Amino acid sequence: MNNSRRNFIKSTSTLMAGAGLASAFPGTLKAAAASDRVNIAAIGINGMGWSDLNAMLKNPAAQCVALCDVDENVLNKRVAELARRGIQVKAYSDYRKLLADKDIDAVIIGVPDHWHCLQMTDACAAGKDVYVEKPMGNAIVECRTMVAAQQKYRRVVQVGQWQRSQQHFKDAIDFVHSGQLGKIRLVKAWAYMGWMKSIPVKPDGTPPAGVDYTSWLGPAATRPFNENRFHFNFRWYWDYAGGLMTDWGVHLLDYALLGMKSGAPKSIMAAGGKFAYPDDAAETPDTLTTVYEFDGYNIQWEQATGIDGGPYGRDHGIAFIGNNGTLVLNRGGWEVIPEKGKMEAVPRQKSVDNGLDLHTSNFIATVKSRQFGDLHAPVQAGALVATTAQMGNIAYRTGKKLYWNDSAGQFTDNDANKFLVAAYHNGYKIPDII
């Protein structure tokens, strides 16, 4: 790794400063919108980008003025859906033209993971506030670049880790921090996805009519079009994403880190593979166990597809295992299971609110107030957990136990350091944020 790259990849501890429920940045800038309304545009509207937009439109301060997608079939469908609701919008196929639109105050980035860094940094440079889907970055250096862009351009950037806006998650972490569980020696986070079945092998073919496949690929390696790699299933290919680790892992590891007030791990090891569906079309592992070592405790990640029988009878969750008891938390609620005679049980405290609605409202409110510290999932938090998830994938892909040099911002293993920077193709380069 050259000196300029090494200097750029600063200590992961700098992410920790903003990894709590609010950013450390004060904000005193003038609100983006001249009126009480915030003009929103959405880029990538087939999945979560569309869900994010619809949640945002429940807020009376938000109005949608533009949509963008490289699939004109999706674009035309969404424009028509909004028109039926009385919302007239501009339609773009090129996100750069959308960013040049002076009527737009903020953008939602709901595109595949390999586009997040370029579009987020371009949006900040264009003076737009940004709601970017998780995982924030698709490589460790991308995460650092995105943090640098937010700091340079002073834009409001919320990462789509919407669990940070749910009350029962906050209450659970308050209980963890109260010390009642005693010494916590192990935190487990897991996702057992029974709904995810085998992806059958399909031949390469021709992109559907109306799809700008070259633009969809962007910085990813040029390959023939294959239906398996397109739309939702891009998640299971290394060119574009990081499998369940970066899909569900960033949500759940986020709370493991938050509960333990963790920065970077000392070491990472991972083992797994395609054990359930060894011959299907996916690249990322369907079964994986990853152990992150910290001073005095470990965080363990587990993932499995095709089965729902996760720890504590839950298909996903986080368990803080202490000497006095274990707190088990997931999207449905939380409870405490005591060690015999050491503390009282806490019955299940159920979720009572809509995290996505609250998260998008938090973004809109912060766009208007410019109080950066009010954000529930600022870029530092998104970068910390995305970096942690990438570390787990790198340990799996190298097959080694890895040690992290936090002051240098890199591993002590050269093979692992090759994965710090995503490979950009087709003339694209990772932004150089100074």
What does this protein look like?
By secondary structure, the protein is α/β, with parallel strands linked by helices. 31% of the residues lie in helices and 21% in strands. It contains 14 helices and 16 strands. The strands form two sheets. A ten-stranded mixed β-sheet has the order 14-13-12-11-7-10-9-8-15-16. α3 (48-56) links the parallel β1 (38-43) and β2 (62-68). α3 (48-56) packs across α12 (355-369). The radius of gyration is 21 Å and the shape is globular. The relative contact order is 0.19.
Would you kindly provide a brief summary of this structure?
The protein has 14 helices and 16 strands.
- Binned strand content: 15-25%
Helical content (DSSP H or I, runs of 4+): 25-40%
Number of strands: 16
Could you state the order of secondary-structure elements as H and E? Answer: HHEHEHEHEHEHEHEHHHEEEEEEEHHEEH
How far apart, in Å, are the first and last alpha carbons?
19 Å
| CATH homologous superfamily annotation of the largest domain | NAD(P)-binding Rossmann-like Domain
CATH class of the largest domain: Alpha Beta
The CATH architecture designation of the largest domain is 3-Layer(aba) Sandwich
Overall structural domain count: 2
